[in-house]
Amino acid sequence: MLPKLTPAEIEQQLSGLPGWTAVNGKLHREYTFADFVNAFGFMAQAALLAQAMNHHPEWFNVWSRVVVDLSTHDSGGITGLDFELARRMEAVAGKLQ
Length: 97
Prior knowledge:
Shape: globular
Structural class: alpha+beta
Distance between the termini: 34 Å
Largest sheet: 4 strands, antiparallel
Mean pLDDT: 97
């Protein structure tokens, strides 16, 4: 099990991830893409990254919008693994937005 980050550690890491916030014990981000194809493309690419990391997001999609929540369930909160997946998702989204 990975160690859960402290509130101070979470705030420090959030400073390097614009658009991400901590909400109810999860990392939270809402993306808006040009259309459904780009939103779905983001999800498909992010799904491959998540599978390779064995760390799967909670997410929701309607047309061009994707809402993402990340937490490490085994640890009971936010860990470094969540931030790593968030950074990788940012790289994918940057190519599609």
